[in-house]
Specification:
CATH class of chain A: Alpha Beta
Order of helices and strands of chain A: HHHEHHEHEEEHHEHEH
Order of helices and strands of chain B: EHEHHEHEHHEHEHEEEEHEEHEHEHH
Strand content of chain B: 15-25%
Oligomer: heterodimer
Structural class of chain B: alpha/beta
Number of domains of chain A: 1
Strand content of chain A: 5-15%
Number of strands of chain A: 7
Largest sheet of chain A: 5 strands, parallel
Largest sheet of chain B: 7 strands, mixed
CATH superfamily of the largest domain in chain B: Thiamin diphosphate (ThDP)-binding fold, Pyr/PP domains
CATH superfamily of chain A: Thiamin diphosphate (ThDP)-binding fold, Pyr/PP domains
CATH class of the largest domain in chain B: Alpha Beta
CATH topology of chain A: Rossmann fold
Number of strands of chain B: 14
Shape of chain B: globular
Chain lengths: 280, 312
Amino acid sequence: MENTDVYTRLNRIACQLRENVVRMIGVGKVGHLGGSVSLAEIVATLYFHKMTYDPKNPKHPDRDRFLLSKGHTCPIQYAALIEHGVIPREEIAGLKTLAGMLQGHPDMDYTPGMEAVTGSLGQGLSIACGMALGLRHEKRPSRVYVVMGDGEQAEGQIWEAAMSGARYGLDNLTAFVDRNRVQATGHTKDVFDIPAIEKKWAAFGWNVLEIDGHDVVAVCEAIDTARATKGVPTIIVANTVKGKGVSFAEDTAAFHNVALTQEQYDTALAEVIAAKESFS
Amino acid sequence: MSEVKSLRVAYGEALVELGKKSDAVVTLEADLGKSTQSIMFGTEFPDRHFEMGIAEQNMASTAAGLALVGKIPFFNTFAIFAAGRAFDQVRNSICVPNLKVRICGSSAGLSDFGDGKTHQMIEDMALMRALPHMTVVCPCDAVEVKKMMACMLDWDGPVYIRINRNDLPVVYPENERYHIGKVTKMRDGADVAVFACGVMTAKALEAAAELEGEGVSVKVLNVGTIKPLDREAIIEHASGVRAIVVAEEHTIIGGLGGAILEALRGVKHAPAEFVGVEDTFGASAENYDILMNHFGLTSDAIVSAVKKTLPA
């Protein structure tokens, strides 16, 4: 256990990231709310505690890399980079606008701090494997963190990458499954159930950890365990709640990618700000 | 008949040369290293050669990751898998961020003559040249392979390298200065311009020699870079002739022929004809010549196209 102040701070940042996401999505504009906010604690813990990442030098070759294989939930990464000052705060108002920096999926041309182009699901883990392979070959200390969705586990390329990650013993690579149990058109168990995710990854040769993805203590400990694990890559299956922190959006596909009404926006903003203020 | 040489071996040798020049060069392979000849690099630099198994999509995106941390990855497989199976990965992981990845589409065109439709890739130039940022090269012989490969350390962005499986006549002038995007005049002529690439360049030269005996003066232009296409050179070479023929080992839809006529849009030009595969898949055959003959990819076909197109 680390100092409880650390965890309070991370919880507060996670809520701040949720607030940024809600503000980004705004009123009457379609945005991926649910799968962004389910990642708030994981992204806060990585960007504000566990990753080697200097916001003043975001291209440092020895930095740790974070990428979203589930690229549609980039608002949560934008939220973190806004807090870091890598993305200007005023960009919050310009999500998915022609004049803005914040594209609908991660784009290295438009947006500072993006590590890869993702969005066509299934490709991010392979890209992360390539990064980890290259960084290890260069003997750099960097670690690579990549987040997949649980619905995304249906992509065949994920399992190609699972094999090659294990084949090359990429212990500088840590993957997450954001298991929020909801995909675009419904609950994963109803749409396309993928049972025994942990057993599958273990059978593919990965070190598998299962945590509560909203418990920053558990997130910290899992990242430490992954870092200490040698010879194999680690996957952290994080049980999360889609829409976490926005009561009407929790555990429903209805807010996978949808516009908020003014009333919904006001409610969402009030809830995430209240949650943030509870951590002080 | 001039000397024949393997383009694959030239490619493998060139990979090794690049590996000696730069530590950043790495290769990826999907269990076809003996065909693509990436195995030569793997033997020389085992710690920089990554066997990825029979999983081309993962290989393409992994190459993107390697490029993102400063490597110059060459990923190697048959053209059908590089440009076809992994198209979405090539597009999104590699081309959108304009990464310095080299994609070797080996055994391209009909050159894998025995394996039939599923392995003969005659749509790759259309697919690859439609992608923003992508450079597409299709060398005509082993000499051009070497000259093209020598540009691969410095050239920015992704490159699709189309490599024929078979030994082909050596026709590219050893002393010719090569640069990506250049159209090379292989033979001068006044009446007809034949634009060709890959295996068809040598056949165009044969056709030109035959036509000369019949009093038709044909110039042959080797278009080793399909994209970026040197539009000014195409317009210049097409001006003043009375017929244009484009010859390619590719479907006539969207390949070199399409690229040439796109370059000539808005410009008054002579009537044009294509020698290529007519909107169909390939087939298995006993040897390459039989198959090329079956699909009309011969010097005779170029001669006929010239005669048909040349106004009386």
